[in-house]
Amino acid sequence: MVVTGSRADTTTLTRIDVTADEFERRLVAHGHSPDEIRRLWEELAVSEAETRRISRVLGLGPLIAVYLGLLLLVAASVSLLAIYWNDLGTWGVLGLAVAYLAGYLVASEILRRRDLTQPADVLEAVAVGWVCLTSYAVEELAGFWPAAASDSGGIHRGLTVVGIVGLAAAVLLMALRPNPLLLVPMAAATALLAADLAEAVFGAKLDDLSGRQATAFVLPLGLGWIAAGLWLDVTRRRPFATWAHWCGLLLTGAAVIVMIPKTVPGFALVGVLGAISLFFSAFVRHWSFTVVGAAGVLMATVSAMSLVGGMAPLLVAIVGLALIFVGLRWSRWRESIQIAVLNRIPPGTRDVVRRLAP
């Protein structure tokens, strides 16, 4: 391995060639544990190919511009399909969906060969949506899709097939190349299947189910995605962990909002869960937990305004000041919270918790 660094009193860069055995022997002599040595080696052992790939990662400004352009491209594709849906017919929808699918995959491959993996990943993830539309068109032509919206059993059956096909397509693309963004269509497909499962278990259409019944299986699904993200954190697959956390937090948050009673205690529960998410971000250090936690506190405050009468402005002001204070002090608090909790848990668990943080 080649290690590149710099001394404190000079800007001259130095390069050190060191083998894994020599690296371990030197650090053991200084009292480092084998686990620490292994983690440090994994962080430093970056191949030249990986270094070249990292150098092609777009900066924040260009990346935002590219993402906005891709968003407009996708919006234009969907709008064209929506405008001419009736004129195209099922065969036309199938042909356009296949054309879009091929075009997105080809464009993704071209970008990937030029080491522009970020926009390539986006196009590849969107392509899963066109696979789902192709599945719908094939079902329609095969007579598997219901002819009338009132046929609830047929709709349930048709959407289930679409969800399974979309999930299978995302898994297949994931097997071909590691694209963290493919977790997003996978999460959407599993959410659709969870809603279908609620229809099957409760024996009614989704529109006829209560909020708690409709999201009965979405909530544990979201928690499962968060658990998967934590496992990916522990195994040091950060990009996958980030998107797994986003999917899990959004699914869990949506399910909680639907399930809670729209009362002050219900909104207070949302605020408490948001505070827990903020607290947990001290260990995971994914800004998704920070954003969702702050959004939960803010949503609880705004939603409860109409229920607390004249106390609403005072409550909003207090919560606003509290968020400002927490934001200004969070960096210092996060370290102290992490240290205090780590000192109170068993050594084996402590090592796992430490590996959650990037």
Global shape: globular
Share of helix among residues?
over 70%
Order of helices and strands: EEHHHHHHHHHHHHHHH
For the sheet with most strands, the description reads: 2 strands, antiparallel
Low-pLDDT stretches are 2-11, 47-55
Strand content: under 5%
Count every beta strand, where a strand is a DSSP E run of 2 or more residues: 2
Distance between the termini: 22 Å
Radius of gyration: 25 Å
Derived structural class: mainly alpha
Mean pLDDT: 78
- Strand order across the biggest sheet? 1-2
Count the helices. How many?
Answer: 15
Could you explain how this protein is built, in words?
- There is one protein chain.
- This protein has 358 residues and is mostly helical.
- The chain has helices at 20-29, 34-44, 48-55, 60-83, 85-113, 117-142, 152-176, 183-202, 211-214, 218-234, 238-259, 264-284, 287-304, 312-342, 347-354, and strands at residues 2-6, 13-17.
- Among the domains are: 1-45, no CATH class; 60-209.
- The chain has 15 helices and two strands.
- β1 and β2 form a beta hairpin.
- The radius of gyration is 25 Å and the shape is globular.
- The two termini are 22 Å apart.
- 26% of the residues are buried.
Topology:
Elements: E1 2-6, E2 13-17, H1 20-29, H2 34-44, H3 48-55, H4 60-83, H5 85-113, H6 117-142, H7 152-176, H8 183-202, H9 211-214, H10 218-234, H11 238-259, H12 264-284, H13 287-304, H14 312-342, H15 347-354
Antiparallel strand pairs: 1-2
